[in-house]
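Ticket opened by: R.M.
Priority: normal
Category: complex prediction / small molecule

The reporter submitted a protein together with 4'-deoxy-4'-aminopyridoxal-5'-phosphate and asked that the result be attached to this ticket for the collaborator who will pick it up next week. Submitted input follows.
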Amino acid sequence: MVETANHISKLPGNKTSIFSIMSKMANDHDAINLSQGFPNFETDKKLKSLVTQAMKGGYNQYPPDAGVLELREEISKKIQSLYGRSYNPDREITITSGATEALYTAITAFIKPGDEVIVFKPAYDSYEPTIKLNGGVPVQIQLTGENYRVDWEEVKKAISSKTKMIIINTPHNPTGSILDTKDMKELENILTRTDIILLSDEVYEHLIFDKNEHQSASKFPGLAERSVVCASFGKTFHNTGWKTGYCVAPDHLMQEIRKIHELTVFSVNHPMQVAYADYLKDPKHYLELSGFYQNKRDLFLNLIKDSRFSFTPSSGTYFQLLNFSVITDEKDVDFAERLVKEKGLAAIPVSVFNINKKDNRQLRFCFAKTDETLEKAAEILCKL
Ligand code: PMP
Ligand code: GLN
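Result attached by the on-call engineer:
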């Protein structure tokens, strides 16, 4: 007898990602797509020609499973210069198929049935299903206030003998909030003398605004010794479709992560890694990003300043939340759908990432777009 889908499903109730849904809706209705987070401008042609060169140079077979050594060496230098911690390229850095694989691999390497993992809500949508797939239990904590801050007292209360891992994400998707030095020190104090692993999703480390500095877990010794830090070249270098990222962690954690990495993908596309190794040699390529995206954020916010949306400027990422409660009483999911179908503009409803789908009447807009696209989008928003 054929079993019902629910019976055989390991993730019953898990729906198609909102990013796929909204991008498809945007395509179907020929709408401007500010929903899924990806740039609509080209990656640097210098980087593309480095990939072509690598392909022509014969880098077309499996690279080492941990990644091209030269790239791992460049990552190690970059982290040392930005955050002051030394990671051994041979044993503590692994190139992954995007940050998605790094997150999946890190959770799968450590979470056993019954383990609890603290997740801050709203949360990026890959964390909780991966925890559940491994039999773990997500323990949700709501970020609070207009700026979506962490209440560290709540974190202390949520920690139990079963807590195996805490996942943080700074700069934060979808809210654009960031953790500051005080937050990281609080976390460091809380985790001292525990065995809790910190999974730090830092894919937007180079997209941080208003002279704020990114506070990487690798900067704080008490955190770095227990942390897996995940990063994404796709986000940093405007090529999300190349699906290349990495994670760094102390040796004893990384050896476990590599076991899962070998089983899931074994290794990651070779020519891209050779190209990134060369491209990373010039720090300008990532240090100029914050200014570039801050200009985009400011352009977008300036264009909609007379609209009926209200907002707190994003502190990092390439996302901006806009509150629409003055415009309509609709649920955010319904408003987002109507915005695509009737007005030709796609955004992400934030409730899908919240505890119990709490609706704060906010949509997330991606401003990693050409100025022309942002102008067209703003024109629509200003008419609402
Ligand atoms: N974490 C966060 C917070 C993200 O927004 C994304 C989306 N890019 C990822 C992880 C996954 O990154 P990648 O595209 O490199 O797999
Ligand atoms: N990180 C991207 C976002 O938040 C989307 C990634 C994806 O499509 N899974 O929009």
